[in-house]
Amino acid sequence: MIKDEDGKNPGSNKSVLEQINSLKREDERLYNILAIDVWALAKTMDEYQPGFWAAFMKNREKALKRFLAEMIKNKSTDSKRPPFLR
Length: 86
Description:
By secondary structure, the protein is mainly α.
């Protein structure tokens, strides 16, 4: 039987790649479904309360900035980590 460099069957690599591609497609499909759900929620809320989405996004931006500030403040200074991971 022919084996690749790692000593595994070449067919097993193909199977793993197919599984990875399948997971990528499923992930993309779920992401698209989530995007549709968020759009439907925003559309519905904007019908009941005009300006809802704009207010939501403004609050989300504030929350994200607050979260990032907290993360930076609480970040440990581990000198063993590379600079881009500190």
